């Protein structure tokens, strides 16, 4: 009996050792994360941010480590809500909200799934947060596309030192655009410049608003604004023939209708957002304590064609925008 027990025990130990070896040698199966991307509308800047976000994640996880569900809301806030609610019901691991309306919709849709924003100008305004500290304190963080507004106002004065009247064109439905318009107005007013706001609601009144501005000001400023970015052709068709230059809040706008911009790289802020996603999903970072990140650098850029048409000469430290 003792001999039989000894043999059985020996066999059991051998099987246990073999199982341990097999377990040690077997590769650990990597989790495949599901990430929903809600982009407000397709245009150059937002497209670049989404691409940078996806590239950063794929570089870390590989193509098999993540599934992206990319959806375009075609500029409609109600569609943003529908999209992010589908991400929530699908129990996605993380949501990327590309622009303000998707961020607001996602914040309303879930308090549990991590939400990263990108192409957001001011999180405090977008989410109605008082006493902004740099972090939201809940399941939202991300990156901002805000170039220093004081420097943008200074750019207008640098390019047009004798300007007396500036008009600001923006979409009144975008909270971040209202914020930028308010800040720029204060900056320019302090320089002794008269500022008038020209707010539009959609494409139907963009041309009328642009013509009204051209009739009353010497220079137009358009902040980082998704609705405006979708209507650069209209603004250019009205303002360039009238001889009214437009200074823009970002490169995509400037490509379509502007003479100059203080630009950031939307790809870079998207890429930074992707790195933040990795930190949350892989390293277990607490999104409630993650500071909103900003573009590491800005560049003075100009639209060579429009500047030539309007007879504008820019300082030597401006870089010509590469037109595709």
Strand content: 15-25%
Rounded to the nearest angstrom, the distance between the terminal CA atoms is 86 Å
Give unreliable regions as ranges: 1-27
What's the average pLDDT? 90
| Pattern of helices and strands | HEHEHEHEHEHEHEHEHHEHEHEEHE
The portion of residues assigned to helices is 40-55%
What coarse outline follows from CA principal-axis ratios?
A: elongated
**Main sheet: strand order:** 7-6-8-9-10-12-13
Largest sheet: 7 strands, mixed
Q: Say what oligomer this is.
A: single chain
Q: Give the class from helix and strand content and strand pairing.
A: alpha/beta
Task: Specify the number of helices.
Answer: 13
Description:
This protein is α/β, with parallel strands linked by helices and 324 residues long. It has helices spanning 2-25, 44-61, 77-89, 100-109, 123-127, 149-159, 175-190, 206-214, 226-229, 232-242, 251-257, 266-281, 304-310; strands at residues 33-39, 66-72, 94-98, 115-120, 140-144, 165-171, 194-200, 219-222, 246-248, 260-263, 293-294, 299-302, 319-320. Helix 11 links the parallel strand 9 (246-248) and strand 10. Helix 3 (77-89) crosses helix 4.
């Amino acid at each position: 009996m003792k001999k039989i027990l000894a043999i059985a025990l020996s066999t059991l130990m051998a099987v246990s050792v073999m199982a341990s070896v097999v377990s040690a040698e077997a590769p650990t199966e990597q989790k495949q994360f599901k990430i929903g991307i809600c982009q407000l509308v397709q245009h150059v800047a937002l497209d670049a941010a989404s691409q940078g976000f996806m590239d950063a994640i794929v570089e870390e996880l590989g193509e098999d480590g993540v599934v992206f569900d990319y959806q375009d809301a075609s500029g409609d806030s109600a569609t943003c809500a529908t999209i992010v609610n589908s991400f929530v019901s699908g129990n996605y691991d993380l949501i990327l909200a590309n622009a303000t309306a998707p961020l607001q919709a996602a914040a309303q849709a879930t308090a549990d799934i991590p939400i990263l924003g990108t192409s957001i100008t001011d999180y405090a305004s977008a989410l109605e947060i008082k006493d902004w500290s740099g972090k939201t304190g809940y399941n939202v963080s991300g990156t901002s596309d805000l170039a220093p507004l004081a420097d943008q106002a200074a750019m207008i004065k640098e390019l047009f030192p004798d300007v007396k009247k500036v008009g600001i064109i923006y979409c009144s439905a975008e909270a971040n655009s209202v914020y930028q318009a308010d800040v720029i107005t204060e900056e320019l007013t302090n320089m002794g410049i008269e500022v008038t706001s020209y707010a539009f609601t959609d494409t139907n009144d963009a041309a009328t608003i642009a013509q009204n501005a051209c009739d009353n000001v010497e220079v137009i400023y358009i902040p980082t604004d998704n609705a405006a970015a979708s209507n650069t052709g209209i603004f250019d068709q009205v303002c360039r023939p009238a001889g009214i230059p437009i200074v823009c809040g970002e490169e995509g706008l400037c490509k379509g209708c502007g003479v100059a911009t203080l630009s950031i790289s939307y790809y870079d802020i998207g890429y930074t957002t992707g790195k933040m996603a990795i930190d949350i999903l892989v390293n277990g970072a607490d999104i409630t304590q993650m500071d909103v990140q900003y573009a590491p650098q800005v560049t003075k850029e100009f639209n060579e064609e429009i500047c030539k048409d309007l007879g504008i000469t820019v300082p030597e430290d401006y870089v010509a925008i590469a037109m595709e």
